[in-house]
Amino acid sequence: MTTYTDRHGATLPLPDAAADARVRSDDRSHVFHSWSAQAAIDPLPVAAGRGSTFWDYDGNAYLDFSSQLVNLNLGHQHPDLVAAIQQQAGRLSTIQPAMANDVRGELARLISEVAPDGFEKVFFTNGGAEANEYAVRMARQSTGRRKVLSMYRSYHGSTSTAISLTGDPRRWANDTADAGAVRFFGPYLYRSPFHAETPEQEAERALAHLEQTIQLEGPQTIAAIIIETVVGTNGVLVPPPGYLPGVRALCDRYGIVYIADEVMVGFGRLGEWFGIDAFGAQPDLLTFAKGVNSGYVPLGGVVISDRIARAFDTMPFAGGLTYSGHPLACAAGVATFEVFRRDGILERVRDLGERVVEPTLRSWVERHPSVGEVRGRGLFWAVELVRDAETREPLVPFNAAGADAAPMVAFATAARRAGVWPFTHFNRVHVAPPLVIEEEELRRGLGVIDEALAVADEVA
Ligand code: PLP
């Protein structure tokens, strides 16, 4: 790849049509992609990235408003993370999990220090789905019960148990993998399953529904309830005040393990180390991945409350992974903590969220007929698009594909042409840029989305 160095010292690709053609050809001939009919996709070849921007081989720059898959919290090619991985690779690239290792131990200690009180131990995995698999296994082994309750409109990953617990269409083709999965409705005031009109009513009725579900399923059969602290890909659904503490109380009443899935929101997305810190509830197991090291090397894990950890003092834990606590991944995690603390990342997420994103998005509800609701926290927001603000009919139908999805495809195309890579899902645009995004970039990207919404307004 031919490159040049820009005035900030960034190495950027020069437009290179031959490289673009080669990458496209290798990819289409040999790479089997996730979640797609293989003939139907045309992935963008990406040549380089830096900070909040990545470039294709034609030299087009894209502001990464989706942080890849909401994992790139510290942006592309953060020099501290790159250096930490390089140094670790030069010293000890891999070591099996039954041996002790300095970066693995250090990262586990750092995580336990920012986790809720009474969480001392960490089990490392290679990603988010595995983290949820192992959390469920811990809950089942420690309670001797089997069922796990999860929400409709949730995503917990794509391995067997995690996909069975998922409450969205990604589960449909994998539905029989885990007979112990039972789903319930969580709070979603804009489209309330409980016909509630206030957040208080929504919380109260959602908790009553959950308690009935527990009673009808048989509390003595239920090992765990798993909940995304803020539901991510299914709509950035922020729980109403009182809901998560109410879940905690139900888990206490019925002896159920509360698993908080923080794979997407953990490590700063909401302006807290862990999202749960903002909602006044304490889980028993807390799962993480993505933001722990921005996905530079695959890493996830389960933070374990002392109560659950004690159950395994004498009972052997039945599980393990060759790459659990991989040194390269952990080195990037340790560096992530250093950057967060030195650069005040949590503070800037709260500041940019409250001062820039929230007021801008709220103004769209007034100005764009297609914007039904905006919701979020920190640097994690959703804009829900509708055909009709009164009836709240979604801009595209639930699970839209093909021609049905055309207005959202047109919106995304307009945003990309103007240099912003958005995150869209059904009738929503999510705003989830890297936490290191410059204020000027953030305002510019929001401006592009604002203009691209004209495409949706034409349909509304
Ligand atoms: N849980 C949540 C809330 C997620 O958002 C995701 C991925 O997006 C996962 C679990 C699965 O993580 P992974 O893709 O690393 O397996």
Automatic annotation (TrEMBL):
One of its GO terms (molecular function) is transaminase activity. Pfam families: Aminotran_3. The keyword Oxidoreductase does not apply. The keyword Transferase applies. Keywords: Aminotransferase, Pyridoxal phosphate, Transferase. CDD domains: OAT_like. It comes from the Bacteria. PANTHER family: AMINOTRANSFERASE, AMINOTRANSFERASE CLASS-III. NCBIfam families: PRK06062.1 (NF004718). Belongs to the class-III pyridoxal-phosphate-dependent aminotransferase family. This is Aspartate aminotransferase family protein. It comes from Microbacterium sufflavum.
